[in-house]
Amino acid sequence: MKRSIILLVALFTAAPLSAQSLDWDLSPVTSSLERVVPTLLGIFCFVALFGWTVWNLIQNWKDRAEILTNAGWALLIIAVGYGIVYGAMQILL
User: How far apart (Å, rounded) are the C-alpha atoms in residues 83 and 89?
Assistant: First the structure.
């Protein structure tokens, strides 16, 4: 236990010295974040909407027209939200 603490302290002590000699290029990280964050958000929202719609159709088949109308509006809102998040990620990163 004592050796692992000494090793951890030595690593944290040496980290600033090695960081000065490295060239930190984060452009691949930011370019992948520009695509990954909006895509994951869109997929999550679409799966949640699909599950919500199926569950409501199973529970309330007689109100299927209203449920499908609400699902259509929600899909439109998800598309607009995806565009806003995608545009914001392009601007911020």
Answer: 10
**Tokens standing for 13?**
């002590």
Contacts of 82 (CB under 8 A, 6+ apart): 38, 41, 42, 45
Measuring CA to CA, how many Å separate 88 from each of 32, 34, 64, 91? 14, 9, 35, 5
- Predicted pLDDT of residue 42: 87
Looking at residue 91, its pLDDT comes to: 86
Other beta carbons less than 10 A from residue 67's beta carbon: 19
| Position 34, amino acid | E
Look up the pTM and report it. Answer: 0.62
Residue ranges for the chain with pLDDT beneath 50: none
57/17 Cα distance (integer angstroms): 61
Q: How long, in residues, is the chain?
A: 93
Cα radius of gyration (the chain)? 24
